[in-house]
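Hi everyone, sorry if this is the wrong subforum. Our group has a chain we'd like a structural model of before ordering constructs, and none of us has done structure prediction before. Sequence below.
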Amino acid sequence: MPTVRTNDIETYYERRGEGPPVVFVHGAIVDHSQWDPQLEALSDEYTTVAYDVRGHGRTGGSQRGRYSVDLFADDLGALLDALDFDEVVLCGLSTGGCIAQVYAARHPERVAGLVLADTFAPKVLSLGERLQRSVVLRATVPFVRLFGYERVENAMVWLQERISGEGVSGDYENIERIRETGPTMATEEFAKVIGAVAGFHHTEVRFPAIAAPTLVLYGEHEAPFMRRQARHLTTEIGGATVRAVPDAGHASNLDNPEFVTDAVRELLAEAYPAETAEPA
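Answer:
Right subforum, don't worry. Here is the predicted structure as tokens:
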């Protein structure tokens, strides 16, 4: 089982292919396998790496009393150091997108390209979004202690579908399959991860520092506040491109893997032009 020491934890990762590196960061309460379709497809030309964020999967938890997106970004930096990657393309989805944008803004010289999928910036754009990102998220923790996070999340998915319309969660069976094959998350780790996501609005991200080619993706059936956040990210990051993923909800890379893989491949060709240029 491949692991590397990142700060105070052993981080599990999977690595495939050869070529310029692409590192995938998954969303909350799943694991690295969320990016399996792209990890496999893009390994034909690139070194692809996906890892389990602290608190998740085979990386598991730690003794720290609380987590933050800043801490997750520090772990990502330690992973890149351990793998001896000087410059990478980062692809982050949902919470993974929060981690990727924080790292990219703090270490722009090490990021050749950036893909932010189904994610959001620290700035809260409406009262409804604040309620969803902070109040509702934190309110799940006591229920998870009583009933387990899978049952609570199923209830949350049902509620979100009622509020934002069918399709907002995409094909949720994809997420359930990831849960069936990966290690179960401890309740205390769930609480710390949720606390990190709910507190993201306190994080400072200097978006003007991000100079790398950036692609913002969102599922066409995403919740309205997530669609607004996608547009907001493109105004914060100069030159960023935004694309809606057809027939997709929140986990757009699983709902429409071919579209997302092709979009990421286009970004990779822009980020690593010398590697993809045809010989004269």
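For your construct planning: The two ends are 42 Å apart (CA to CA). DSSP finds eleven helices and eight strands in the chain.
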